[in-house]
Write a structure and sequence with these properties.
Elements: H1 13-32, H2 52-68, H3 77-117, H4 131-138, H5 146-149, H6 156-177, H7 180-200, H8 211-229, H9 234-240, H10 243-258, H11 263-279, H12 283-288, H13 291-298, H14 300-320, H15 332-378
Helix pairs in contact: 1-2, 1-13, 1-14, 1-15, 2-6, 2-8, 2-11, 3-6, 3-14, 3-15, 6-8, 7-8, 9-11, 10-11, 14-15
Length: about 375
C-alpha cells in the first residue's frame, strides 16, 4: 500500500448527487404518482429510479471517508461525538422544517374542515401521519418502520443512513488501515451482505421499510467507504480515470437501467462508476463541472426532502380543488404539465431552503451543540 496519499478532488461527485436526486424525483412524480404518463413505455430507466437511493448510500460512505479518514482513522470518543454532532447538524434543520410543514398542513386542513363542518378530526396516535410518527421523526427513527412512521416518505433513507453514521467511526479505522488481503476480505464480506440482502428481497432493491431497509443501507454505505481506499492505488486513476472508461461505464449503466437489468448488477456497476468519476480529470469532469449541474448537486438534499412535501400538498390541492382523487383521471398532457410544475416547485423551494435553512441551520446547530459539548467536558 502506498505510504503517502494525496486527497483526490471529488467535485465531480457533486453533480452526480444532483442528477441522482432529480432521477428519484422524476421516478416518484411520473412512474409512481402520475400513471397516465406511462413512463415504463420508454424503457425502465425511470422505473428504476429507486436505485438512486443506493447510489446515495454508496456516495455517502465514499465522501465521508474522504473527509474523515485522518480524523477518525483511529477511534476517539471526543472525535466520535464531534462527528455525530456534524451529521445531526447536516441533516436535522431541514428535516425538522419539512416535518413541520407536513404537520402544519395536516392540522390546517383539519381546522378548515372544522370551520366548514364543525367537526375536528384529531391526529391519530399511531400509524402514518400520527402523533407517534411525529415523535419517531423527531428522533430520526422513522426508517425502522417507515410504512407506519412516515410523514415525509423519502425521509426513511436519512433515518437508516443515520444508523450507518453511528457505525461509521467504528468501522472506518479497520477499513482505512486494511492492506490488500484484509481489504479484499472486507470487500468480500460487504459484497456477501449485499448479495444476502438481494436474496432476502427477491432481487428487488426497492426496500424502504424496516429491517430490509437497514440491510440495504449498511453494506452499501460501508462499501462506499472501502471503495474510497482504492483511490490510494495509482492503478485506479490510470485504468478507471480515463474519459473512455468513464463514458463507457456511464453508457453501460444507462443501458442496463433502460433494459431492466437486475438491481444487484446495477448497484455493483454504481461502485465502479463512482470510482471512475472520482478519478477522472479529463473531459468528463469538465462536462459535469458546469454551474447548473454543480448547483443541482448542492440542492440535492433539499430537493430530495422537499419533493415529498410538494407531492403531499399537490394531492390535497387536487382533492379539495377539482376533486381529483384518482390521478389516472388526468390525461397525458395534464399529467406532464403537473409533473413539470411539481419539479419546478420543488427546485424553487430547494433553492431557498438550501442557503437559508440547510446551510444556516447547519452552522447554527453545529456551533450550539459543539459549545454544549465543550461546556460538559469542562464541567
Amino acid at each position: 500500500m502506498p505510504t503517502s496519499f494525496q486527497r483526490p478532488d471529488l467535485r465531480i461527485l457533486t453533480p452526480l448527487r444532483g442528477i441522482a436526486a432529480l432521477w428519484v424525483v422524476v421516478y416518484h412524480y411520473s412512474y409512481q404518482y402520475l400513471p397516465s404518463l406511462q413512463a415504463e413505455r420508454g424503457g425502465q430507466f425511470v422505473e428504476k429510479g429507486y436505485l438512486a437511493v443506493d447510489l446515495f448510500f454508496m456516495l455517502s460512505g465514499f465522501v465521508l471517508t474522504h473527509v474523515y479518514h485522518d480524523e477518525l482513522g483511529r477511534f476517539d470518543a471526543a472525535r466520535y461525538r464531534d462527528f455525530l454532532v456534524a451529521r445531526v447538524a447536516r441533516l436535522y434543520p431541514l428535516h425538522l422544517l419539512v416535518l413541520l410543514a407536513f404537520v402544519t398542513t395536516a392540522l390546517g386542513g383539519r381546522m378548515l374542515d372544522f370551520a366548514l363542518t364543525g367537526h375536528f378530526e384529531a391526529l391519530p396516535l399511531e400509524g402514518a401521519e400520527s402523533v407517534l410518527a411525529i415523535f419517531a421523526n423527531l428522533v430520526m427513527l422513522q426508517g425502522l418502520d417507515a410504512g407506519e412512521l412516515s410523514w415525509n416518505y423519502p425521509a426513511w433513507s436519512i433515518s437508516v443512513e443515520f444508523l450507518a453514521y453511528l457505525l461509521f467511526p467504528l468501522a472506518l479505522g479497520p477499513i482505512w488501515r486494511a492492506d490488500g488481503i484484509r481489504g479484499a476480505l472486507i470487500g468480500l464480506g460487504l459484497a456477501c451482505g449485499i448479495v444476502a440482502f438481494a436474496w432476502l428481497a427477491h432481487g428487488d432493491f426497492n426496500q424502504w421499510d424496516g429491517p430490509l431497509a437497514i440491510a440495504r443501507c449498511l453494506p452499501e454505505f460501508l462499501l462506499g467507504s472501502l471503495l474510497y481506499t482504492a483511490m490510494r492505488r495509482p492503478a485506479v486513476a490510470r485504468w478507471l480515470g480515463s474519459d473512455g472508461v468513464a463514458v463507457g461505464l456511464l453508457a453501460a449503466g444507462v443501458l442496463l437501467l433502460h433494459f431492466g437489468a437486475p438491481d444487484l448488477l446495477n448497484v455493483a456497476l454504481f461502485g465502479v462508476i463512482v470510482l471512475s468519476l472520482a478519478a477522472n480529470r479529463g473531459r468528463v469532469q469538465a462536462l459535469l463541472d458546469r454551474r447548473p449541474l454543480v448547483r443541482l448537486g448542492e440542492l440535492s438534499y433539499a430537493l430530495y426532502l422537499i419533493h415529498g412535501f410538494v407531492e403531499y400538498l399537490t394531492t390535497r390541492m387536487l382533492a379539495s380543488g377539482p376533486g381529483i382523487v384518482d390521478r389516472s383521471e388526468l390525461g397525458v398532457t395534464s399529467s406532464f404539465a403537473l409533473m413539470v410544475s411539481m419539479i419546478a416547485a420543488s427546485l424553487l423551494l430547494a433553492s431557498y431552503a438550501y442557503p437559508h435553512v440547510e446551510m444556516r441551520g447547519r452552522r447554527a446547530l453545529r456551533d450550539r451543540l459543539m459549545a454544549r459539548g465543550r461546556t460538559r467536558a469542562g464541567a
